[in-house]
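Fold it.
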Amino acid sequence: MSAANNFQRHGPMMSAPATPAGETPDYKCKTWNGASVYYTENLNGGGVDYADDYLDLFNCFKDRPRFQRMFEWCCGPAFIGYSMLAGTICESLCLADLYRPAIDAAQYTACKNNIRDRVTIYQGDGLLALPESEKFDLVVGNPPHYVERNMLEYIRNIEPRIYVDDKWLLHREFFSGIRKHLKRNGLIVLLESSRGSHIDTFRPMIESSGLKVCGWQWSRRFDSRFWYLFIMRDDSRMQLLMRTQGNDSELRLV
């Protein structure tokens, strides 16, 4: 495994930390396999629970592959990324987010767990934060799930930036830019909400970007409220095979 250069700064978005030197926010934490992930409640867009669901999903892989380099898009505090790194699903991790407090929390987690040699963190606007050299064989993400303000999320006082993707611009930009960072046989797995979208919401955006939908599956823990979208490059040599019988699912990359 080639270790990543953690906290590599790229572009003007990597500004000084929002928290003054010597001060640490009053972080909460959740631990997976001995790795504690630090966050404040206003940074939690559900990822603290969705991370467990992602782990359940990847445990459905028969002869589960270990991915070399994983990217978490719209990472926030990186619940998903860090839990999957701790679960040995990937060897190294790349994170990116626009919001400075989220970047600070992700950096704090890497420091506290002494894994800075396995994590690279960028602050910036979507994929623009990534240098051309970043290539991934796995991409995951819990992006904003709604194209407009959702009354349920509004009542829960969740900040709109966490759950609203106006005109699906964030998704469109992601699909149009991720192919050059995705290895030929790489896999993208995104968590979406059934209250906000379905597979045909994104299929035209995906197919116009040199990618293809290779399957979808309901969430393991949240039933029909959330679903996973599987995507590959249109020239991939890999196939994703899926089998569902009752409550049991099996996934295989061949």
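The mean pLDDT is 87.
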